[in-house]
């Protein structure tokens, strides 16, 4: 409605209408004077609340003498420029009820009504016109499932939807046209807008709807509401206040009309009497009913004045039921008295409602205290539940570790069985190799070819060894750092045995490093288990200390109550003692009086002496008993004080122990943080180990391929030898020197093959160890992921709690603002309003000395004359 006030492009309907009104006034004749009043109120929770004076909380709706509803007690401000109107709007906007929902960050929680009352007076002929412009901002209909309203916001939404449904019922009844009863009194909104909806007014409704499919049902119902409202037709008349001369002129006019009607009535009576007498009346003498008679004015006050001024003569044939002046005056007095009683009752209702509002505020404060205590209790319960859950999770982790160890043992057994089978296969292969070597001893012809083949195989083996050593050096770098690199000799004719020994040493070093890492991981796990046990023990001690503290506090309370009881007993005994002393003093005074007056009566004196002695004895006995009781009470008080001191000392000890436990708990937390950091480092090492495992797997594949190629070459070599042996059965034997060289080369190849098989077995064992550690690390990773998920859920809950706290904080801020405004207004007190007349034809003077430029804007109006509407249309057409 307001938009951005001061911006010509982004300003809303209200600023445009205000500028249009004042520009129209400035463009009119100078002999016209205007008085403009504005008021601003809202309908919140079905209660009318003044936005310009927040102390007026529950205003009532009354009717004036013309049966037009108005809000009684609403603050009215006289304004003389658009800037003053905008200041009033800003002041009212600051007091409106606004809340945050899922669909709107600044959702209005009430219907606001901005009323502009304009009075025009012609200084020349004293003609007066008046009109009211209601600018109503209706709160939108809400669905709780979409807005997520709860608590006070939900109650506000209920009242908003209730008033909007009442407005829809009124518009439906007005659009029907056949209904005699319009339910204006179902809601205060429809009661205030009674004249605007179905009275002397022109109404403009602006509908705000959404094109999104998400809001399809709301958009359809809103458009149906607007379609029904378009069918309502109102008859509009000008609100004109007549002067005395105008009233006199109208009175004379009505008087002449009544005289003419009176003469016609007399003629009709004479004609009727003639007809009744049996005469026939000629058509020329008959009264003509077609004579033009001026229409009676609709103003009820003039007709009443005419009826009071001109009594109609009673004829014998016509009965006229008119009231006398005295009866009418009595009725008017009775009506005024009833109106006064209604006003008094409304004021009483307003006072009662204000008292009820105060009681409700007190109840809300008490409920807030109860809710805060409940929240604290729930937080403590949640903390206890969280601690128990952590304990359970620690137990589950221990179980998982035990299961992982069992799985490791099973995997170790399986791998050992696989190693035995592989060793058996290797032995069978060696036996075959021995048989082939025996066959080689018999070969003598193909020695040169064997020499060439052995050199070729030697080259290939050296290349394989160099590649293998390079891969091992890369794995060592990945596991232990960059210091453990293997230097591969470039000389292919070097000693292969030295290279194999270097590879063996490096592999043993890698194995020791892996074992050290595993031992470190196990040590950290055992340390973590011990720390968890310590934390659980400390928590148990803390709970026991809390129980002891609560027991001692209860004991102190009981001791304090017993002390209070003893003090009360002491006070009662002292009061009784004072009463007895007063009685003794009175008795002594009476004795003195009797002693002075009874000198002549010795017997009475003796009796009085005996009585006095008896009373003194009784007083002594009572004094002794009271002193004993006081001494006992003092002893009891001393004992109770000693008990209190001992309890205080014990309480201080327990508080110190509690503080010590808290410090230990903080230390354990720090240790747990350090362990989590170490766990992250271990995770990094595990990732490196996983990468090394992948590299080892690739290396195993390459070694297996090379072994397969060697096996194939051996088969080919054996087949070739067998074929050549068959061919060279009749060949001559070679000399023994060549056979010896061949045997040496074969033994060298056998040694190399044994070393390669040993390296392969070692790599297989290392791979098995890494695979055994893999499930354990995966379980740790799963535990960390679950912990991350739990932290994410906790973060989400914390965000939701922050949103709720934000809403609660906004509500408290609004309540405090309202209380501060009420206090300020109570200090300020009621002040009189000064009318600021506006002279037409003169622009409003700004603070800088200039004049505001008129910007004609077409806007909807209410209760304004047709002449003004025509002038506005002419101005808009010219612009």
TrEMBL record:
Q: Where in the cell is it found?
A: Cytoplasm, Cytoskeleton
UniProt-annotated stretches for the region Disordered: 823-879
Which superkingdom does the taxonomy of this entry point to?
Eukaryota
Q: Tell me the keywords, alphabetical order.
A: ATP-binding, Coiled coil, Cytoplasm, Cytoskeleton, Microtubule, Motor protein, Nucleotide-binding
Gene3D superfamilies xref list = 6.10.250.1590, Kinesin motor domain
User: Where does the record place a coiled coil?
Assistant: 244-271, 328-432, 507-716, 746-801
Give the molecular function GO annotations.
ATP binding; microtubule binding; microtubule motor activity
* InterPro entries per UniProt: Khc_C, Kinesin-like_fam, Kinesin_motor_CS, Kinesin_motor_dom, Kinesin_motor_dom_sf, P-loop_NTPase
Q: Name one GO cellular component term.
A: kinesin complex
The processes (GO biological process) annotated in the record are:
anterograde axonal transport of mitochondrion; establishment or maintenance of microtubule cytoskeleton polarity; female gamete generation; nuclear migration; synaptic vesicle transport
Domain Kinesin motor residues, every copy:
1-232
Q: Which family does it belong to?
A: Belongs to the TRAFAC class myosin-kinesin ATPase superfamily. Kinesin family.
> What subunit structure does UniProt give?
Oligomer composed of two heavy chains and two light chains.
**The protein's name in its UniProt record:** Kinesin-like protein
């Amino acid at each position: 409605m307001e938009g951005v006030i001061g911006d010509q492009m982004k300003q809303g309907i209200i600023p445009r209408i205000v500028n249009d009104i004042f520009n129209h006034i400035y463009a009119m004749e100078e002999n016209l004077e205007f008085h403009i009043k504005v008021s601003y109120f809202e309908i919140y929770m079905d209660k009318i609340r003044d936005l310009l004076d927040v102390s007026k909380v529950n205003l009532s709706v009354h009717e004036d003498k013309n049966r037009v509803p108005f809000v009684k007690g609403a603050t009215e401000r006289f304004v003389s420029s658009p800037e003053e109107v905008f200041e009033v709007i800003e002041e009212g906007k600051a007091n409106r009820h606004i809340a945050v929902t899922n669909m709107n960050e600044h959702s209005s929680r009430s219907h606001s009504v901005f009323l502009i009352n304009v009075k025009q007076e012609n200084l020349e002929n004293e003609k007066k016109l008046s009109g009211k412009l209601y600018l109503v901002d209706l709160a939108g209909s809400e669905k709780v499932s979409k807005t997520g309203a709860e608590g006070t916001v939900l109650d506000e939404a209920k009242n908003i939807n209730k008033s909007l449904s009442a407005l829809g019922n009124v518009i439906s009844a007005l659009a029907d046209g056949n209904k005699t009863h319009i339910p204006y009194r179902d809601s205060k909104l429809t009661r205030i807008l009674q004249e605007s909806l179905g009275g002397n007014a022109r109404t403009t409704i602006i509908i705000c709807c959404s094109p999104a499919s998400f809001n399809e049902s709301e958009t359809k119902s809103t458009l149906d509401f607007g379609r029904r409202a378009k069918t309502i037709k109102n008859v509009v008349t000008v609100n004109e206040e007549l002067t005395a001369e105008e009233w006199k002129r109208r009175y004379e006019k009505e008087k002449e009309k009544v005289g003419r009607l009176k003469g016609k009535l007399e003629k009709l009576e004479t004609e009727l009497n003639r007809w009744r007498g049996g005469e026939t009346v000629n058509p020329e003498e008959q009264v003509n009913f077609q004579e033009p008679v001026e229409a009676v004015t609709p103003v009820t006050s003039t007709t009443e004045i005419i009826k009071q001024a001109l009594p109609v003569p009673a004829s014998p044939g016509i009965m006229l039921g008119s009231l006398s002046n005295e009866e009418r005056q009595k009725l008017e007095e009775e009506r005024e008295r009833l109106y006064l009683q209604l006003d008094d009752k409304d004021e009483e209702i307003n006072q009662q409602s204000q008292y009820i509002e105060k009681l409700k505020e007190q109840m809300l404060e008490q409920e807030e205290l109860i809710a805060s205590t409940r929240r604290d209790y729930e937080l403590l319960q949640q903390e206890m539940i969280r601690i128990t859950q952590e304990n359970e999770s620690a137990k589950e982790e221990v179980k998982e570790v035990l299961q992982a160890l069992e799985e490791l043992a099973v995997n170790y057994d399986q791998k050992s069985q696989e190693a035995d089978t592989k060793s058996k296969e290797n032995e069978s292969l060696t036996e075959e190799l021995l048989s082939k070597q025996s066959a080689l001893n018999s070969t003598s012809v193909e020695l040169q070819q064997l020499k060439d083949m052995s050199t070729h195989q030697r080259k290939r083996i050296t290349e394989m060894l160099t590649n293998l050593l390079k891969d091992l050096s890369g794995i060592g770098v990945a596991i232990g750092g960059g210091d453990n690199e293997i230097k591969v000799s470039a000389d292919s004719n070097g000693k292969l045995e030295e290279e194999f020994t270097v590879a063996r040493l490096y592999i043993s070093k890698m194995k020791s490093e892996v074992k050290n890492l595993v031992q470190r991981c196990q040590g950290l796990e055992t340390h973590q288990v011990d720390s968890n046990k310590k934390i659980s023990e400390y928590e148990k001690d803390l709970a026991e200390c809390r129980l002891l503290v609560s027991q001692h506090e209860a004991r102190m309370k009981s001791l304090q109550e017993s002390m209070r009881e003893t003090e009360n007993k002491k006070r009662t005994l002292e009061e009784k003692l004072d009463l007895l002393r007063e009685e003794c003093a009175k008795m002594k005074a009476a004795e003195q009086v009797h002693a002075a007056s009874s000198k002549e009566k010795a017997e009475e004196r003796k009796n009085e002496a005996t009585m006095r002695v008896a009373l003194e004895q009784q007083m002594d006995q009572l004094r002794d008993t009271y002193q004993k009781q006081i001494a006992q009470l003092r002893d009891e008080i001393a004992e109770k004080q000693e008990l209190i001191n001992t309890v205080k000392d014990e309480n201080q000890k327990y508080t110190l122990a509690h503080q010590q436990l808290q410090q230990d708990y903080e230390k354990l937390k720090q240790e747990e943080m350090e362990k989590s950091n170490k766990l992250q480092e271990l995770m990094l090492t595990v990732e490196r180990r996983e990468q090394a495992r992948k590299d080892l797997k690739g290396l195993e594949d390459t070694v297996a391929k090379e072994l397969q190629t060697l096996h194939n070459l051996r088969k080919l070599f054996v087949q070739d030898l067998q074929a050549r042996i068959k061919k060279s059965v009749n060949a001559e034997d070679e000399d023994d020197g060549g056979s010896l060289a061949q045997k040496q080369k074969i033994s060298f190849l056998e040694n190399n093959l044994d070393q390669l098989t040993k390296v392969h077995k070692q790599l297989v064992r290392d791979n098995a160890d890494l695979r055994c550690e893999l499930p354990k690390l995966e379980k740790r990773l799963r535990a960390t992921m679950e912990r991350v998920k739990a932290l994410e859920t906790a973060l989400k809950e914390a965000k939701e709690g922050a949103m709720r706290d934000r809403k609660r904080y906004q509500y408290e801020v609004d309540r405090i603002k309202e209380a501060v405004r009420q206090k300020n207004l109570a200090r300020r007190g009621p002040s009189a309003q000064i009318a600021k007349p506006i002279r037409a034809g003169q622009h409003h003077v700004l603070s800088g000395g200039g004049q505001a430029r008129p910007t004609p804007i077409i806007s909807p109006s209410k209760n304004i004359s047709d002449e003004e509407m025509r002038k506005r249309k002419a101005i808009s057409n010219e612009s």
